[in-house]
Every structure is written in C-alpha cells, then in structure tokens.
Amino acid sequence: MRRILVAGISGAGKSTLARALSNRIGVPCHEMDGLYFAGPGWAVDEAFPERVAEIAGTPAWIFDSFGYPEVRDLLWERADSIVWLDYPRRVVMPRVLRRSLRRTVLREPVFNGNRETVAGWFQSDHPAWWAWSQHAARQAEIRRRTRDPRFAPLRVLRFTGPYSAAVWLRSVGPA
User: Fold this and answer.
1) What per-residue string of b and e applies to 17-55 under the rule 16 or more CB within 10 Å gives b?
2) pLDDT tens digits, residue range 119-155?
3) In the Cβ-directed half-sphere of 94, how many Cα atoms lie within 13 Å?
4) Are 82 and 64 in contact (CB under 8 A)?
C-alpha cells in the first residue's frame, strides 16, 4: 500500500483515518478539500487538477477522498488501494453534525481559512445535508467502482463500522 484513497461519505472519518495511516506507514497524506478550496469564500483552486495529478504521479500518497469529478478517474487509476469507510447513516450523521456544530460555534478555520457558518447550514452543499442526501448514491458509486474492471488491480479494504477500521489500522505498519 503506497498510493491510497480513503473513500466514504462526509463524516465517516476519512481525514482522521488517512492522517493516522500516514503516521503509521510513513506515506504523505493530502487533504483533498484543502487542495480544492484555495482561499477565502470557498474559492476553488483553478490549478487543482494539475496539483492533484502532480501528487498522483509520485510513488507514495494518501488522499482522504473519493475524488472530485475532475480528478476521480486519475486517482482511481493510479491508486493501489482503496480504504472504504462504508458506514451507515446512523454512524456518520452524529459525527458530521457534531463536527459541523463545533466548527460553526467555535468559528474553526477549515480549508485555507474558510469557516462553516450558521447560514451555511441552510445550503444543500453543507456537510450535514450532503452526508444525508448523498449517502446512498456515494455508497453505490464506490461499490460500482470497486467492481469496475478498469480498477480490478486495486486492493479494496471495506469497513462497515469504525471498530473494524480501528482494528485494521492498529495492525498496519509500526506503531
């Protein structure tokens, strides 16, 4: 495992697991949203596809994402492993709600100085709404990709609950 995508819906714990895995195996971790959102106002980095392609061209990396559409196929073609956090809504929704509430109330900066706002909670792309509305579609898309012959060489590790993912992570690399 040297080129790894940690996939799942918002709130599954992709970033947390990707960072922990990075620490255990010594492979650089890249936060996809941090690359995508370039600055204040949720501005998108125009060079995003080129930046991701440059990283994906290196021998070792971990991305905490299923992949934005403009880089998804590239990452899936170059990855050697998919760690799929396929958790049910009852697991991800409390997580994403707690995280977003904390970020909103404490005004925590995320992704290059951006912040979650109270007004953002009423937009369809807010993480909580996204996790709820896109859960089944994201699950189906990841499942389809894991069965796609183009990606047959991928090693797919699918975890249906946080405990099994944590047990696996403890078994990987040095502590």
Assistant:
1) bbebbbeeeebebbbbbebbbbeeebeebeebeebbeeb
2) 989 888 899 999 999 999 999 999 999 999 999 899 9
3) 4
4) no
Percent helix, percent strand, percent coil in the chain, to nearest 5? 55, 15, 30
- Extract the tokens encoding 171: 């078994």
For 126, phi then psi, to 5°, come to -65, 145
pTM of the predicted model, to two decimals?
A: 0.93
Tell me the Cα Rg of the chain: 16
- Which residues, 6 or more positions from 43, have their beta carbon under 8 angstroms from its beta carbon? 37
